[in-house]
């Protein structure tokens, strides 16, 4: 039986980028991500991995998650250089993004471990403190861990100062909501986990997303 593990003293970080793109640009957009962008980011010192997902049921078709050793990585000269001086191919495809969502988050309140083939994302209501969110997510993680197909759950807590919007991201009414992420080994398991989490948190289906794992690159692979 899986049990909650305490948050580490120095929480890991993650860059979360959800986006859509005109289908006319799909081929070049995916080539850019797969052949340049993920590799470029994971090579930055302090980055641990880059992972691509595609929507099963989500408002945005594409999701990229870039895990780092800590939030401090996003303040390093190497990261600032990469973020402020994009390649021409990057500039072209960043401008093609439709209503992107960029968040830099602490990764907290882990239950279980590992990467699942299906990812559940639940947008959490505002108004709770970090301690309250961690307690809530750990308690829910212990319940979700009993569901067949559960792999790992955690809390993504956005950092306002680091979550600079992308060029095409609207800043009007922009809200940095915390997120519950649940990894599952099967689609059926993910659907059950989403339903159970939504009920426990009293959130609507519109506040949830399902994504399928595409591929992942680890810094240790380079």
Give the topology.
Elements: E1 12-21, H1 26-42, E2 47-57, E3 62-68, H2 77-84, H3 88-96, E4 97-112, E5 118-123, H4 130-144, E6 150-158, E7 179-184, H5 187-201, E8 208-218
Antiparallel strand pairs: 1-3, 1-4, 2-3, 2-8, 4-6, 5-7, 5-8, 6-7
Helix pairs in contact: 1-3
Structural description of this entry:
The chain is α+β, with helices and mostly antiparallel strands and 222 residues long. It is 29% helix and 34% strand. It has five helices and eight strands, in the order E-H-E-E-H-H-E-E-H-E-E-H-E. An eight-stranded antiparallel beta barrel has the order 1-3-2-8-5-7-6-4, surrounded by four helices. Helix 1 crosses helix 3. The longest helix is centred in the N-terminal third of the chain and has 17 residues, at 26-42. The radius of gyration is 17 Å and the shape is globular.
